[in-house]
Structures are given as structure tokens and as C-alpha cells.
Design a protein that fits this description.
The chain has 211 residues and is of the alpha+beta class. It is built from six helices and seven strands. The strands form two sheets. A four-stranded antiparallel β-sheet has the order 1-2-3-4, with no helix packed on it. It has a three-stranded antiparallel β-sheet with strand order 5-6-7. The longest helix has 37 residues.
């Protein structure tokens, strides 16, 4: 048994926090704290902390950039002399995303972005259309942010586990995978809310147009 600096080694075990006086007298020490953490345990804690810091940094970056990505100017407004036939809005699916188109000619007036962009016409329309348009932007931002962080967490797990080829997963990988799955699931209600708000915004915009 070796005694020094509060460290006791015996029978292949390391114990931390036991005072030398307690060892000499054989009495239990109130400062006993248990086994020393192994190098692997310390490495796992460091990886967990690094994953948490990375996730928080990504979230802060996304939240700081949302205003510039999803902000919609209000200077467009409804063109003069609009009728339902010439200016009614609708959403059409294209090869690279979804577009807001106007009138029978299908003029493109916006492209729906991942963080709520492309609905400038709705935000500058009647009050009800603008209100639902703002709800769409908020819900889309939240859904996209949560989904993106979940995807980042999944990518981290894939890299750490060599594309899930490792036989055993560490605590860091398990926690990251569970957190990523939870964030992805949490984004679904916001995506549903965004689509519902967008549909209502389009309806209110079109209902204000003269026939």
C-alpha cells in the first residue's frame, strides 16, 4: 500500500480524497470521495463536454443569422390594379424548392427558404395574411434550427462510430444520438405549424383581392 498526497493504492484500486491521518489511525475519513476517475472516463467526459460546446456554438450561430436569412422586406406590397386572376398567390413545387407564384401566368415572386424567406408578398399584404406570414416565418425558423442541430448530432455520431461499425458505443455517442433524435422529433410540430400558417396566409391574401 502506498500513501502520498491523499492517494491510496492497493489491491489494484485507486482511491481519492482519503487523508493520511485517517490511514494511520484506521478511522474512516469524511473526505473520502471514491475511486479516481480512469483516463478513459476522463476522455469520455471531455468528449461529452466538447459535443455540448459544439452544439451550443452551432445553435448560437444559427440564431444569430436567422434575422438576416429569414427577414422579409415590406416594400413590395400588392401591385396597382390587381385582381384575383392576375395577382392571386399560390405555392408551386419546382426542381429546387418551392416557389410563391402570382396570377394565371405563374409569375414567381418568391422562393421559400429554409429559414422563412421568400414570403415578402404575404408579409406586405393584408393584416391577416401578414400575421399568418409572420407565424410561418417563426415556425419555419424553429423547425429548421432544431432539424439542423439534430442532423449535426447524427453526423457526429456517424464519424465517432466509424459509420456505426464499432461494436460498442461510448457514453458520448449514446448521449449525442439521443439528443439528435429528440431535436429532430421536436422539429416536426413546428414544420406542421409552418405549413398550416402558410396556407392560411395565402388564403387571406387572396381573399382581399377584387374579383
Amino acid at each position: 500500500m502506498n500513501i502520498g498526497n491523499g492517494l491510496v493504492q492497493g489491491h489494484g484500486q485507486h482511491w481519492c480524497g482519503t487523508s493520511s491521518r485517517a490511514l494511520r489511525t484506521g478511522s474512516p475519513s469524511p473526505s473520502f470521495t471514491g475511486k479516481c476517475p480512469t483516463r478513459a472516463a476522463r476522455a469520455r467526459r471531455m468528449m461529452i463536454r466538447r459535443d455540448i460546446v459544439t452544439t451550443v456554438a452551432v445553435l448560437a450561430l444559427l440564431l444569430s443569422g436567422q434575422r438576416s436569412w429569414g427577414q422579409a422586406p415590406s416594400a413590395l406590397g400588392t401591385p396597382v390594379g390587381c385582381t384575383y386572376a392576375t395577382c392571386a398567390l399560390r405555392i408551386e413545387t419546382a426542381w429546387f424548392g418551392m416557389h410563391v407564384v402570382r396570377g394565371t401566368q405563374g409569375e414567381r415572386v418568391g422562393r421559400l427558404g429554409s429559414f422563412g424567406g421568400g414570403v415578402e408578398s404575404l408579409l406586405s399584404g393584408p393584416d391577416s395574411a401578414a400575421a399568418y406570414g409572420r407565424q410561418y416565418v417563426r415556425a419555419t425558423r424553429r423547425s429548421s434550427t432544431l432539424g439542423l442541430i439534430g442532423a449535426v448530432a447524427y453526423a457526429v455520431v456517424v464519424v465517432r462510430t466509424d459509420n456505426f461499425k464499432r461494436e460498442q458505443f461510448g457514453d458520448a455517442e449514446v448521449i449525442t444520438a439521443i439528443a439528435g433524435a429528440g431535436l429532430t422529433l421536436a422539429s416536426v410540430p413546428f414544420a406542421v405549424q409552418a405549413q398550416r400558417s402558410l396556407s392560411r396566409a395565402v388564403w387571406w391574401y387572396n381573399s382581399a383581392l377584387p374579383r
